[in-house]
Each structure stands twice: as C-alpha cells, then as structure tokens.
Design a protein that fits this description.
HAMP domain-containing histidine kinase; 3 domains; about 50% helix; transferase; Beta-Lactamase; five-stranded antiparallel β-sheet; kinase; Heat Shock Protein 90; rod-shaped
C-alpha cells in the first residue's frame, strides 16, 4: 500500500470517527436543550395549576385547569397531579384511572425536582414536581404538585434532528476527505519531485540533488549528495591507483620490447617475436583495463555522437592490415547520440570493429537505428560467423571464437554497455556475425 493511500485512509477514518463523535455530542446537546425547553413549558403549566388551586366541598381542587386540550383527553400525553394533605389527590382528566407514583424524596418549600417515571400504557414520562405550603384559605399544610409529559416526544424530536443533520454530516465528511486528499497531494509533491531528481541523477540530467527542498527532506537530499561526493572521490582514487599501476607496468613492458629488439639484432628472431607478442598482449590488457576504469568513473551526464565515433574508427581501421583489405560501410545517421562518453564508445565500438575486421572476408557494415529511447549500434561482418549457442560465451571474459587475440574485446564492450545501462547482443548474420550495442539515447544539439 502506498504512503499516500495509507495517509488518505487514516485521514478518512479519523474524519469519520470525529464526525461520529460530533454527531453523538450534538445529539446529547440537542436532547438536553429540548428537555430544558420542555421543563420550561411544564414550569409554566405547573404555575397555572398551582394558581388555580381552590378549596371545595371535597377539599382541595383545581378551579381552572390549564387550557391545553391534552390535559382533558384521556392519556393525551400531558398530565398534572396534586397530592394534598391527608392523602387528598387531584389528577387531570388525561390521567384517567392512573396515578403518578411520585418518588418519596424530600423537597423544600418551593423546591423543584425533575424525574423520569413510568406513565399510562407503559409510556415513560418526564415529570416536574414542586413542593408548596398551602395558605390557610386552602386548609394549610404541604402539597406536592406535578406536571408530566411523555418523553417519547422528546426522543422523536432528537431522532428528527439527527435525521436532518445526517446529510450535512455526510457532505462535511466528503468535503473534509477531499480536503485531506488535496492536502496529501500538495504535501507529498516534494517526495515525487525527490524521486524525479534521483531518476535525473541516474539518467544524467542532474549532477546533485541540491538544497531546494523542504526542511524535512533536506537531510535526505544532503545525504544523497554526500554519498555521490564520496563515490566520486573513491572512484577518483581508484582511477589514480589504476593509472599508477599502468605506469608501473608500462615501464617493464617497454624494457621487454627493448630486450626483444636486442635479441632480434642478435639473430634470435623467434625469441624476439614471442617476447614482442606477449608484451603487446599485456599492453592491450593494461590499456583496456584503464579504459574500464575510466568507464566506471564517468558521470551519467556524458554523451557521444555515434556517427562521429564510427567514421573516426573506420578511418583508422582502413590503415591497418586487416582493415585495409575490406570494404567499410557506415550507415549511422548524424546526431545519433548515446548516453556514453566518447572515449568509452570508441573503446566498445572499436573492439567490435576490430573483431569484425579480423574475421570478415570482404565487407564490414556499421549501422544504427533508434528504437524506444534506445540506439542500436550494429557491426556486421561477412565472415564465418559463430557456432550456434556460442553468443553468450563470446561476451564472457576471454571468450573467443578462435585462437587469435586475447579474448577481451567483446567482454570489455559488453561491460562498457552494461555500465551505461545497455547491453551487447550477438547474432548470426548468415554469413557473418552482427554485434549490437544497445545503448540509451541522449538528446543533444544534433539530435
């Protein structure tokens, strides 16, 4: 799961949880508000009942009941009850044959209590009761007056409120989730840019990460730049060591060539030829190892024009014994640039061209074609070709089709191509062999 999706899902869950808690809180607040309004209304009704108290032939009565018709309708939903001295009780018509079972709590004079009590037909009632001291004209003593209403009305109002609120909460959840996605998109853009910059480093379009990053990503960019600098320094030291080694070997090799010349002057032609062949082979190995060291040290921003390199190589090879007897054809469009240093391209293409010149009968063709961001640079000869199944072995170190040469040319060409994130392919040309360098293209002024 991607980091963006994880954060988005976590944000969505957090939003839903927060809105759920908010909905519960709002429901409680609305229920408390509705109950306070109901208690306020019942307070008015209770005052009306107490104000209408009178003394009749049967004792304490309510001369003018509240005007709300629900008090007169049996089980109408609004009720009042008076518990007077000596067990005298007066009830609204709406209570019919039911009496409120007021709790046996102690109220001070004028004190008010709110209860939830069972009512007629199993309904739950919200009850407001008050204790009063009756005046002498009403017979004196203490009385408890209560007004009640069905709590189902309050619960219905709360449910209606939540039903009305739910669509708005849904819209709010969508808006907040969308805002969260937008925030993630904006906040994570530097990470996408970070990946793009690393890809640019790899492709050679940039040299360093730079410091134009948010504070949180700057340490990462700095560490990558430090790693690149350390790698460059290490490669530079490796090149220096290789150069020192090559310099140390070239002097003894030169001495061997001098010794071969002395032997030839003394008439030992066979011994001189053997020493010279060995010295030349060793020199080629040293030169090619230096080329490989240069390849490892190249930055990824380099490029080379394949047409220029191919024409230069052919011009040189035509002056060699193997190349002078051949017909060379160069079919490489101008401006065919590859992501490889010119010296490395010359080394790789030269190894293929030398190999072709050594085995060709009459013709060698250098050609190139572009394909999906790659340049396929091919060298084809009309020689004897290679046995089936030998293509992979020929690109291995010291792999060769015959006993001539040192067997390093194709291997080094393959290694140079792989260092540039390409490859070397070999295929039978029937007759002959086609060796193809598959290299990433590079845009350039001539492309």
């Amino acid at each position: 799961m991607s980091l963006r999706l994880r954060l988005a899902l976590a944000g969505a869950f957090a939003i839903l949880a927060a809105l759920g808690l908010a909905a519960l809180g709002l429901a409680q607040l609305f229920g408390a508000h509705v109950e306070r309004r109901a208690v306020a209304e019942m307070t008015v009704q209770l005052d009306q009942v107490l104000a209408a108290l009178d003394s009749g032939a049967q004792g304490l009565t309510v001369a003018r009941p509240p005007a709300d018709p629900r008090f007169a309708q049996p089980y109408g939903g609004l009720y009042w009850q008076i518990d007077g001295p000596e067990g005298v009780q007066q009830r609204s018509r709406s209570l019919w044959d039911y009496a409120l079972d007021l709790p046996a709590d102690t109220l001070g004079d004028g004190a008010v209590h709110v209860h939830r009590l069972p009512g007629p037909e199993g309904a739950t009632l919200l009850v407001l009761e008050r204790s009063v001291t009756l005046p002498a004209r009403l017979g004196g003593g203490a009385a408890r007056a209560a007004v009640a209403m069905e709590a189902a009305e309050l619960d219905a109002a709360r449910r209606a409120f939540m039903s009305d609120l739910a669509p708005y909460l849904g819209v709010l959840a969508l808006v907040l989730t969308g805002a969260g996605w937008a925030q993630l998109w904006v906040g994570l853009r530097p990470l996408a840019r970070l990946g793009g910059r690393v890809a640019a480093l790899r492709a050679g379009r940039a040299e360093r990460m730079g410091r134009d990053w948010p504070h949180e990503l700057r340490p990462v960019a700095s560490e990558i730049d430090a790693l690149l600098a350390a790698r460059a320094a290490e490669t530079s030291r490796a090149r220096a060591r290789a150069a020192d080694l090559a310099h140390g070997l070239k002097t003894p090799l030169q001495a061997l060539m001098g010794e071969a010349a002395r032997l030839r002057g003394a008439g030992a032609e066979t011994q001189a030829d053997g020493i010279e062949d060995t010295a030349r082979a060793m020199r080629r190995i040293v030169d090619r190892e230096l080329a490989r060291t240069r390849t490892a040290a190249r930055t990824s921003a380099v490029s080379a024009d394949a047409a220029t390199v191919a024409n230069r190589l052919v011009a040189v090879l035509r002056r060699t014994p193997d190349g002078g007897r051949l017909d060379w054809q160069v079919i490489v469009p101008a401006g065919s640039r590859v992501a490889l240093d010119e010296a490395d391209l010359s080394e790789a293409l030269g190894a293929l061209a030398e190999n072709a010149a050594r085995h060709a009968r009459s013709r060698v063709t250098l050609s190139a074609r572009a394909e999906d961001g790659l340049l396929l640079l091919s060298v084809t000869d009309d020689g004897p070709g290679i046995p089936p199944g030998r293509c992979e072995a020929l690109t291995a170190r010291h792999g060769r089709a015959d006993e001539t040469g040192t067997g390093l040319g194709l291997s080094i060409a393959a290694q140079i191509a792989e260092a540039a994130e390409g490859q070397l392919t070999l295929e039978d040309a029937g007759p002959g062999l086609t060796a193809t360098l598959v290299l990433p293209r590079r845009a350039g002024p001539d492309a």
